[in-house]
Design brief:
The complex is a heterodimer of chains A (69) and B (374). By secondary structure, chain A is an alpha+beta fold. Chain A contains 2 helices and 4 strands. In chain B, strand 5, helix 6 and strand 6 form a beta-alpha-beta unit. The chains are: A alpha+beta (69), B alpha/beta (374).
Chain lengths: 69, 374
């Protein structure tokens, strides 16, 4: 299954996003990541990334970028 | 000692709060939001759950609006110094604590002071409204005076602010956890909380809930993310939380909110009964001076100021201390309130019970004041 890293601006948003995805039945774990602006947190999830993105937007979770995991 | 100084901090903490703090020291042994290992993520998760619980308790949408600070004074400073600039117009009440007065002096804001009527909420709201101009940026006021206990009509002031397009900030140091506060219903933009008072959490933590942009930061530093950038990040709440959080105290806040929920605000009625008994007894003592009218619940918080004729407030407090009773005397860091009560020369003695205060303790206090002999 394809997995994605959804990068959020803070651990708070990563946790908020993780909880939002899990409530909708998506598997989601938090991992530390390094990106162009330095360190941060991302949510690792699989399945339908468009649906996942929609869930996060509905939950007002800020997304910085989505990358393949 | 019998503690009647619970307005400064609630002296006795519930066992659940003590256990939560103790557990946090043992279990949450990593810095939240700083590492990718399970210990750090677990600590971050625990902190996040308290943000969500706090937001829910105060009627704010989203844990990310909850900022943990060093104390309520820091929370007030973040709001005032972030939101206001020099010459911005702000309206405060004539009961404010120095936590509000001093930052405004430092900022150089244009300050209007609204008279709080000790008996009428309608008059109080009209007094606030009378100061609003087209340039008013913020109304910031205490939810209740730490000197005389007068509770401001926060909901009505919030309505006024919304109708006039003015931001609204509240110093809820004396009311949070004691009476319900719903930020959304009351149109509160910024709520500053002292969890170590009405929420029975430990000292060393404050809460700021910001439902609109605060503006500038007071403190910049490491936030655990975007470390390559030399600028403070702009996302909430980390923008205002540089440095390591007080995780044990945050867990104490969580337990304190649970304790307050279990009380279901019944403690307010019990504590007001204590204050009413004290008031009714003091009223009959010719040597005791009171400064507020007798009222029903809702307009006052459970605290009371008094003086004894011809004896300084600090002397009375010292006398009561020797009798095993803790009270606070003086000006209570609230010069405006004392000017309003005309007690700025010498201050008052303040009594504030807690949820743990007993009727026997109230009886003892009354008897010691009745037969005071200095």
């Amino acid at each position: 299954m394809q997995k994605y890293m959804i990068v959020t601006p803070s651990v708070t948003y990563a946790l908020k996003g993780r909880d939002a995805l899990r409530r909708m039945g998506f598997p989601a774990v938090i991992e530390r990541r390094n990106g162009s602006s330095g360190c941060g947190y991302g949510i690792v999830t699989g399945a339908d990334i468009k649906k996942a993105e929609s869930i996060l937007n509905d939950a007002s979770v800020k997304i910085l970028e989505i990358t393949d995991y | 000692m019998i503690n009647f100084d619970n307005a400064a901090t609630t002296g006795r903490k519930p066992e659940s709060v003590i256990s939560a703090v103790s557990r946090a020291l043992r279990v949450y042994s990593a810095n939240p939001g700083r590492g990718g290992h399970d210990l750090s993520v677990e600590a971050a998760r625990a902190v996040y759950s308290v943000r969500e619980k706090t937001a829910s308790f105060f009627g704010a949408s989203g844990g990310e609006k909850v900022i943990f600070t060093a104390n309520c004074t820091a929370s007030v400073n973040y709001v005032l110094k972030g939101f206001l600039g020099r010459n911005d117009h702000v309206i405060i009440s004539d009961l404010e604590h120095n936590a509000v007065v001093r930052p405004l002096k430092k900022i150089g804001a244009k300050v209007s002071v609204a008279n709080v009527d000790l008996l009428s909420d309608e008059k109080t709201v009209r007094n606030f409204a009378s100061h609003i101009t087209e340039s008013t940026k913020l109304i910031f006021c205490t939810a209740a005076s730490n000197v005389c206990g007068r509770a401001l009509p926060i909901g009505k002031i919030g309505e006024l602010c919304k109708s006039r397009g003015v931001a609204f900030g509240v110093d809820a140091a004396q009311t949070a956890g004691v009476v319900p506060i719903d930020m959304e219903r009351m149109n509160i933009d910024f709520l500053c909380v002292a969890p170590h008072k009405g929420l029975y959490a430990p000292m060393g933590i404050g809460i700021l809930i910001a439902c609109r942009d605060i503006g500038d930061t007071l403190l910049e530093g490491g936030t655990g993310t975007n470390s390559l950038s030399e600028y403070q990040p702009d996302m909430m709440p980390e923008r205002y939380e540089s440095g390591t959080l007080n995780v044990p105290a945050i867990m104490g806040v969580s337990a304190g909110i649970d304790f307050s929920r279990r009380q279901n605000f019944k403690a307010y009625a019990n504590e007001m009964n204590h204050i009413r008994r004290i008031y009714e007894s003091f009223e009959k003592m010719p040597h005791v001076r009171l400064y507020t009218p007798y009222t029903e619940d809702g307009m006052y918080m459970p605290l009371l100021s008094f003086n004894v004729e011809n004896i300084g407030s600090e002397q009375v407090a010292e006398y009561l201390n020797k009798k095993g009773i803790a009270v606070r005397a003086g000006l209570h860091c609230a010069p405006l309130a004392h000017r309003k009560l005309k007690t700025e020369d010498g201050g008052t003695v303040r009594i504030a019970p807690s949820v743990f205060t007993t009727a026997a303790e109230v009886d003892y206090l009354i008897s010691q004041v009745k037969y005071i002999n200095i």
